[in-house]
Amino acid sequence: MQASADRSALPVAALRIALAAFVLAWIFGPYQLRSSVPVLLVFLIALGLEIHFFVGVLKAPTERPERDRGPQAVDRERFGYPHDVEDPYEEELDDADDLPLPPAGRRRPGRRLLVGLGLIGALALLLWVVESRTGWAGLSAETRAEATARFSAEASRVAAKPVAIRCDESGQYVGAVQHADGVAKVGGDLAFLTPERCLDLYRLAFDGEVRGSRTGRALAVLAHEAWHLRGVRDEGTTECYALQSGVELGRRLGLSLETARGLMRQQLAENRLHERGSAEYLLPAGCRDGGELDLDADDPEFP
Ligand SMILES: [Zn+2]
């Protein structure tokens, strides 16, 4: 029993350490990690592990039944053992009894759970501080207004009419819950983007900062919603147009033509690779150079 409990405790302990390391890497590490894994998932896994371990400890028997290692009553009767006989093995048995020490958590499960929860809480607090200082919400109200005005102007070019872009800080319209980076009414004049996409667009337009495929995704999302506002409903067609408009959009926000093309081609390749989880968003066959969705058939480059 003891041995099997220890065997299962070891990977759990290793997993806890790995999770803590991952959260720290998520906060301070490369930006790509933050974009690909929702950290809430990591916290939920960590919380689940703690509770699972706590429940396991509560269920496990903590006391071994007491055994009297002296001569048993039946021996005394049969062999006339004296009551105060020195047992030559008594000391050895006592030592042996000390050997299988219970792991620390087994002795104080409640305290261990509190320490675990405290660690998770501390990491969550650290994450919140980092996010509020460095995220979209960390920018001043004037800066955010200036940035959204710029996004709206760029979206209006793509939509070929005046439209407005808003960054949905409330998470009411777009985000992890809605499973969308942006939302727009087809043919409407208002679109919402997640604060994460707004931040990446801001970093590009105002700081000249390129964050790899994140920047490419943000450009594609802004162009995508703009094409919806222009009146295109079909998701595959909208995305195909967006990746083409994304080149000019990226260039206008400060990228070189070469970098802008590279980022949009990366988005195109990723779409073909992942299919974005749903066939609806898959780029149609006509989304190629000279295809029916090529916005500039004379241009040999695509997108
Ligand atoms: Zn769409």
What is the strand arrangement across the widest sheet?
A: 1-3-2
Mean pLDDT: 81
Say how many strands there are. 3
The ligands bound in this entry are:
zinc ion
Contiguous runs where pLDDT drops below 50 for at least 5 residues: 1-5
Describe the structure concisely.
By secondary structure, the chain is mostly helical. It folds into two domains: 2-136; 140-281. It is 61% helix and 4% strand.
Please explain how this structure is put together:
The protein has 303 residues and is mainly alpha-helical. The chain has two domains: 2-136; 140-281. 61% of the residues lie in helices and 4% in strands. The protein has twelve helices and three strands; from the N terminus they run ααααααααβββαααα. The protein has helices at 2-28, 31-36, 39-59, 73-79, 90-98, 104-107, 109-134, 141-159, 195-207, 213-230, 235-252, 257-274, and strands spanning 164-167, 182-184, 190-193. It has a three-stranded mixed beta sheet with strand order 1-3-2. Strand 2 and strand 3 (190-193) form a beta hairpin. Residues 1-5 have low confidence and may be disordered. The structure holds zinc ion. Zinc ion is lined by residues 224, 228, 235, 238.
Quickly list its features.
303 residues, mainly alpha, three-stranded mixed sheet, 61% helix, binds zinc ion
